[in-house]
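Teaching note: in complex prediction, the entire set of molecules is handled at once rather than each chain in isolation. The prompt given to students was simply: 'Predict the structure of this complex.' The entities are:
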Amino acid sequence: MGLLTFNTPAVIVTVISVVIGFVMVFIFAWTSDQKAIGVAKEHLKAHLLALRLFQDQIPVVMRSYGRIIVSTGRYLKLAFKPLLFVIIPLTLLAVYADRYLGSEPIARGQAFLVKARISNPDALNSAALQLPDGVTVTSPAVHIPATNEVAWRLMAEKDGKYDVKLQAGDQTVEKELVVATGMPRLSSVRLRDRLWERIFVSGEPALPSNSPIDSIEVQYPARDIAFAGYGWNWIWLFFVLSLAAGFLFKSIFGIEI
Amino acid sequence: MKLVVRNKRLIAFAILGLVLLCPRHSYAYAGPGAGFAVLSSFWTLFVAFLYSVYAFFAWPFRQLFRMLRRRKAYGKAQIKRAVILGFDGMDPELADRFMKEGRLPNLAKLRDQGTFRKLRTTFPAISPVAWSTFMTGVNPGKHNIYDFLARDLNHYLPYLSSAEIKGPKRNVKLGKYTIPLGGAIVKGMRRGIPFWHWLGEAGIFSSIIRVPVTFPPEKFPGVLLSGMCVPDLKGSQGTFCFCTTRKSDDKFREGGVRVPMERNGKGYHSYVPGPDHPLGTGEELRVPFEVHVNGKPNQADLVVDSEKFTLKVGEYSEWIQVKFKAGAGFGAHGICRFYLKEVSPEVEVYVTPVNIDPGQPDLPISHPVTYSIYLAKLFGPYATLGLAEDTWALNEKVLDDDAFLSQCYQNHDDRERMLFDALEKTQQGLCTCVFDTTDRVQHMFWRYLEEDHPAARDVPRDKRPAVIPELYTKMDELIGRVMKQIDDQTLLMVVSDHGFKSFARCFNLNAWLHQNGYLTLKDGKQESGDWFEDVDWSKTRAYTMGLNGLYLNLKGREREGIVDPSEAEALKEELRVKLNGLKDPASGKVGITGVFDCDAVYAGPYVDNAPDLIVGYGDGYRASWDSVMGKVTAQVFEDNLKAWSGDHCIDPRLVPGVLFCNQKIGEEKPAIVDVAPTILKMFGLALPGHFDGKPWTVGSAAT
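The expected output is the structure of the full assembly:
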């Protein structure tokens, strides 16, 4: 956390991408059938060349199209095995990084929405926020019965980590709110049940199972990372940079991907 | 077991499915491996799609163009497709014998349903000459190929008759470096137009694989992979490398180099010699490699360019890509195979000649250039050298019989794969593929076919393998598989350029000329070095180099010619009379059965480049190894003790080729020169006026 605070997001994403590119290329090399992948790629290219070499022979061209599709499938199948080895750790890593890089914290004086989804329509009407000191409501709650949602527009006067309390029915739950600069760890939503979704999008404990509140969300603004003159979502920047790093390392170490 | 595997797969799919489908799609990105896989697949399909769009819009124009060009195509054709299989050197007498023994059921079927004839060959009966005639339909006087070698009239030195490879036209001198401005220039020396060019002009597509003397490849509407005469990366016709820890100063006479292998820590260090440095430093480029004896019996690890592979003694590696680096972006790409010959007490590794890499050809070896690349991508690297089977290594006993045969059949299997791909791709048009295996194996194993060949006297009769009968059986099986691929609108021909006979005795024609006063050595010497070293040209009237040509030292033609043109005819007649019927004093057999005046045999614009006489050796005889290399020895006749024990460079009347066809052919004495006009006729095309061959009557009209 501390380390992240002192670095710009672009540098962090670049470092992660290069390291991941390096590690993943080697994992790919160790877990894949390199020879078979090489052959599959060569076959693909051969069938592409056949399109040109035998272009006036329609049956040959049609067969080549068929073989291109089959060879593509074979190639993807061969790439599937190393994918199994890397997809879980890398997904977890991406989830972890997204807590820091995916959104920006709320800025002082900046209005933001807190939205709750409540499964019981009666509780929806009586839902009320209990705000800590320094956080104020800037407009009345808006009820959306069609989606069982209620939303509040809030504003914070100073930096800090707050707990916003939401009362619905006879239950009160808390939701973390971060008002800061830099790259603190953020959890935008707190959920009830839905284990898989919680793993990926929520960094907070589950809401009680018997709670009428389905979810409570703070809408942090998405983070744009300045890189090469453009604003990037971190996952796209990671995609591009790790591919570039992977390409570089695979060429240097002669690894077939 | 299957259940376990299935469960594992189910679990794997379930995990992947959950991860991919559950939360955010962006988390499905699993690193650069997956990224490349998806991007590559997408890119491939995208390129295919783009090409489809291009093809769709270009199609009407191409059809129109083809319609205009194809007015003649197939209009009067009697066939939809012609498949010509060239079995270099298949002998009609052996084929007949093996068919009678029941070894060749498929060829017998062709004979019974269609045709089996002897096919008259060219003068001389040498592959580059005969195949040039096959493809052009003309005699050598019109295609300019008379032997593997032609002679330089200024220096009495040989050069390759089929192609000339020169450096770029312009260079820049920079200190000790000469920077080439442009690539090597490859010039074809064969004249005449191959008949598939005429087919192409009429809109008939051809796939031509490894027909000799098609290097450099010429542009035509079809695909072609060059064959015999394609050089190796050193520019030679095949130079193997023998790396050994055994100390020896012996040099191989031809075809190979001995490279020392040095102990280096726990392993052994050596190198593969490559081409000369492209920047003109005079150095030879090399690729180093190491051998590590790994402790397992009869096994070692070879490390080439940081890639390690394990070989057992008596085993070949796959084709290994080697890059000869010259710095500054210059270099050459080659492929070679390593053969582990021995690991104890000494270490010996044989390396095949470094072939041009078909996947990254530094010289054009196919038309279009992408065809060799296409084949390499489809089937992996393959031999591209014209004479890919290393006969010299067996001659020099670097390889034994089994290792040589293994090499031959590995190349043969590659060729078969190419043939069947070409058959699939050429459902209409011409498909021609030449197999060299028949030639090379007969050259090297004829010694086991006869009673008392000098080269096999140390092998007991019951230990002699039936290599040649097995070869014919293998070729017959190939025919069987091809016959299953063709329909009744396909004309199938099996042709060979010549037959085969024993080569038991060598005849040194230069020695005979010397002993009979036609060739004089300086200072009364009795023997010369290679390439006429010590020959006194001022007193020499005739000489020979290459396999069958005899040359007069003609005034005004050769630089030091002394024979007046007005005396040439008389001298030729004198030599003809003396040589014709010449007997071997050791056996009383006739060593030379015919001497042919080239003025009578050839006609055409290139007759001046022909030898003056063609010497036709008798059955069992051939020009000696020394005579071919322009060397005068004391002996005229001697035993041939080399593994190269069968040959065809003799009297062409004794070594006709074969002609099998799945249709009846009316001609009783067909010749190889007739193939081109016959194919054009079968496709309904008019014959060019300059053809020497005559089309045969084929099909029902021939019965």
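Point out the following to students. Chain A has two domains: 8-102+227-253, 112-218. Chain A touches chain B through 63 residues (CB under 8 Å).
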